[in-house]
Amino acid sequence: MNALLSPVLDRPALERPTRERPTAARPPLRLVPPRVAPPSRPVPPPDLPAFEPRTLDAELEAADDELRTDSGIGEDARLLCAKLALCVIEILAGARPLDQLGRWVSDSVFIQLLRRTVIAARSREVTGDEARRPRVRVGEPLLNRLGDSVVEAVVMIHQPARSRAVALRLERHRARWRATAITVL
């Protein structure tokens, strides 16, 4: 049994057996075109949707028009709250300009979001991060009607690293819904 485990003493331990390769003339290597044509544009990963430019005014205007005619809390109020919450998260991430949200929020909310946007931009500048559109999944809004002209809602925003809650208060202002309070937790 010891004979099988002992090293071979005929050749040095660091030397490996070499095999001589034939030096026959081989044709030179050449590039061959691929069998399948590459895609004309990059293909997004399968788990992420392709980026599509968003028009906030068109989405919110459609939801707001239908909400104006609905006296109860319907799917339109849910849609409006979900879109506003998503826009607030994108604004704080630096992926969307705050001006797009100006007509949908009160002046005090606009100033509050402006302050938070400046703080977030300074934080990204210090850490060297760049502003990018966050990967989020918007949860189902939970709505509570406080009167004919007031709706409060909570929307969960799920990101890969964490989840956030966005609390909204919508009030009717000149036949249109406006957010008079937004809190991101």
From TrEMBL:
<feature type="region of interest" description="Disordered">
    <location>
        <begin position="1"/>
        <end position="47"/>
    </location>
</feature>
<feature type="compositionally biased region" description="Basic and acidic residues">
    <location>
        <begin position="12"/>
        <end position="23"/>
    </location>
</feature>
<feature type="compositionally biased region" description="Low complexity">
    <location>
        <begin position="24"/>
        <end position="34"/>
    </location>
</feature>
<dbReference type="Pfam" id="PF20060">
    <property type="entry name" value="DUF6459"/>
</dbReference>
<dbReference type="InterPro" id="IPR045596">
    <property type="entry name" value="DUF6459"/>
</dbReference>
<feature type="compositionally biased region" description="Pro residues">
    <location>
        <begin position="35"/>
        <end position="47"/>
    </location>
</feature>
<protein>
    <recommendedName>
        <fullName>3-hydroxyacyl-CoA dehydrogenase</fullName>
    </recommendedName>
</protein>
